[in-house]
Amino acid sequence: MSKEIPLKGCPKLMYNGPCGGGSGNICEVTRGKCVWVEEYLRNPENPLFHNIVLDKGFKITDYIPKEREPTSSFMMKLKNGVKTLSYEYVAERNVSSEKIRDELLRLKQVYDAVNFIDSPLGAVHIDPMALAILSKNLGVEPVVQVSCKDKSRVQLEAIVLSLMLHDIQNMLAITGDWPHLIGDKSNRPVFDLDAIRLVYLVRLMSDLGLDYRKRRILNARIIHVGVASNPYFNPLELEVLRLQKKVYAGAEFVETQPVFDKEVVLDYVKRLEERNIHVPLIFSLIALPSYKYAKALEEFARVKVSIEYLDMLKSKGNEANLEFIPRLAEELLSLDSVSGIHILTLGDNNMGLELGKRIRSLL
Ligand code: SF4
After folding, report:
1. How confident is the model at residue 4 (pLDDT cuts 50, 70, 90)?
2. 225-243 b/e with 16+ CB inside 10 Å = b?
3. What's the whole-number mean pLDDT along residues 299-312?
4. 16 lies in some domain
5. CATH assignment at residue 52
6. 318: in domain
7. How far apart are the first and last CA of the chain?
8. Which residue has the CA at smallest separation from atom 8 of ligand 1?
9. Is there a contact between 84 and 339 (Cβ–Cβ < 8 Å)?
10. Which residue minimizes the CA distance to atom 1 of ligand 1?
11. pLDDT at residue 1, as a whole number
12. How far apart are CA 356 and CA 358, in angstroms?
């Protein structure tokens, strides 16, 4: 693992490739060119794209994380080839613990695990750790999203210690969005680590019982760490290289950004196989509320929503999801390379429950 300086001109100070928030070569923050994509197009062999780059704060740089025995029931299923069904729970600013408990208990009947989000796009949500503790107490397997956004490595390390303390064994390490995208612009952005260095930090703490400065952690526990990946990223090979680095850093499962058709999944899987990347792949499917929302998403996230889904949303509105998503889930679950399906509904938890029931019957 090398210790090279990052490229200049990246507002998030990424060390290991593009943050994933940009669209093609357009920077999510400046709307100018993404310096990482530009560098890749100029010199794809630059070692920055192939080696994990740690900053000088890391006192351990030669650890190579290995495959581990799973300890959480979610990870056991993934490792044992049992296809999983998980859900992204959005509580936003709903602080009714009764309502949240009720929804989680209903979701538990159909989902193997529930993810708790970390204030995406700078929009304030209840802290995912608080929801994960509540969830664990209800017997619902939590996956805590931990975003590098808005946190120094001290804060990130504190979160990992808290996961260990509460015996919460699954987390998703993400870089996170620039917090001004829809959030308050007076908020000062902090990007101390990127997802790759966060994965490596978690594996140091979890496997070796040491933190980034080599300080001992007493009674360290296993935290299974997953990462995000975008099958629509352009250039896709750059996204594949970034995923390869995440796996080298110790990532144990992947949750993709939402996908809308099987062909995109097949192409993405083929590219991973060509790079010899073998890690459980969970594909996200999102229930969009309307045709208008789908078109806005295409524009904002540069994804290609399938024409069939767009037509269905246009003619049937939100109801289209109950037809389209289980059908796509069935197609994807028939592929050996698909380890699970992850459902997003942007907070429509009744829709989430109904989709969960329909997809569960296919497993
Ligand atoms: S899109 Fe992300 S990685 Fe690229 S320059 Fe902007 S902040 Fe940096």
Report:
1. low
2. bbbbbbbbbeeeebbbbbb
3. 86
4. no
5. 3.20.20.220
6. yes
7. 41
8. 10
9. yes
10. 27
11. 46
12. 5
What is the tens place of the pLDDT at every residue in 171-205?
999 999 998 877 678 888 899 999 999 999 999 99
Ligand 1 center from residue 35 Cα (angstroms):
7
CA of 60 to the centre of ligand 1 (A): 27
105-133 pLDDT tens trace: 999 999 999 999 998 888 889 999 999 99
**Which residues are CB-neighbours of 293 under 8 A, at least 6 positions away?**
none
Question: What pLDDT is stored for residue 5 in this prediction?
Answer: 60
Tokens 């889904």 belong to which residue? 309
Tokens of 179: 């917090």
Mutate to test the pocket of ligand 1, among 26, 29, 41, 191 (most ligand atoms within 8 A of CB): 29
Atom of ligand 1 nearest to the CA of 12: 7
Nearest CA owner, ligand 1 atom 6 = 27
Q: Which domain holds residue 317?
A: 35-360
Ligand 1 centroid to 192 CA: how many Å? Answer: 14
How far, in Å, is the centroid of ligand 1 from the Cα of 297?
19
- 81 Cα: distance to centroid of ligand 1 (angstroms): 35
Pocket of ligand 1 (CB under 6 A): 10-12, 14, 18-19, 21-22, 27-29, 34-36
Which of 26, 36, 194 to mutate to test ligand 1, by most ligand atoms within 8 A of the CB atom?
36
pLDDT in tens, 239-287: 999 999 999 999 999 999 999 999 999 999 999 999 999 999 999 999 9
Domain count of the chain? 1
Percentage above 90 pLDDT, the chain: 85
182 C-alpha to ligand 1 centroid (Å): 17
Considering the domain boundaries, does residue 126 fall inside one? Answer: yes
Give the relative orientation of helices 349-360 and 320-333 as an angle to the nearest 10 degrees: 40
- 119 occurs within a structural domain: yes
